[in-house]
Amino acid sequence: MKELIILCNGEPPSKQLLQKYISSAGFLIAADGGGNIALDMDIRPDVVIGDLDSFRTDQSHPFKVIQQADQETNDLEKALSLAYEKGAANVYILGATGQRLDHTLKNLSVLKQFNEQFNKLYMIDNFGTIQLLPSVFDQKIAVGSQISLFPLSGKVTGITTSGLKYPLRDEALENGVRDGSSNEVIDNPVQITYRQGDLLLFVADA
């Protein structure tokens, strides 16, 4: 299985956005209450997995429902473990942001935890796309796109960029000190390199 979607129980994506990724990936794992979001949009997940404290289980469903009561992992971790077992290379996570801030922060931590297990691991909402960057990033992004760089855990050092309106030249970003929010793509390809740390890239939808 090359591509797979996970739908979480945060701020629901638009139906159009969800269907866009379903049309390309095809397989949908709903993380607990994400199953309710899918069904409310008349979209059937292939699997619902989680501790099932949110998913409506008062009716039968024509898809697999997996209950894992383990409270040491959250529902996104359970869904990503299942995606890994299924051999997914690229995973697109929707509905993982918004609503409770602690859940969003936890899901960003999970993004780091599972990043090395997939070729691509993106977190997507109605406003844009978040990914944890490799130490060397070289990709085309539409000129005029608004982007932000954030250190996920502490400090990221040795950051050098090209293709951005406000370049960095062997500089550092650090939580509570300096971040790289609200930059703009002015040329392609966008190149970002860094030496140490965990660097998040957010690309806003046009």
Automatic annotation (TrEMBL):
It comes from Fodinibius salsisoli. This is Thiamine diphosphokinase. It comes from the Bacteria. The keyword Manganese does not apply. It holds the Pfam family TPK_catalytic. The lineage of its organism: Bacteria, Pseudomonadati, Balneolota, Balneolia, Balneolales. Its EC number is 2.7.6.2. Signal peptide: none annotated. GO terms for molecular function: thiamine diphosphokinase activity. Residues 128-200 form the Thiamin pyrophosphokinase thiamin-binding domain. SMART domains: TPK_B1_binding (SM00983). It is an enzyme of class 2 (transferase). Keywords: ATP-binding, Kinase, Nucleotide-binding, Transferase.
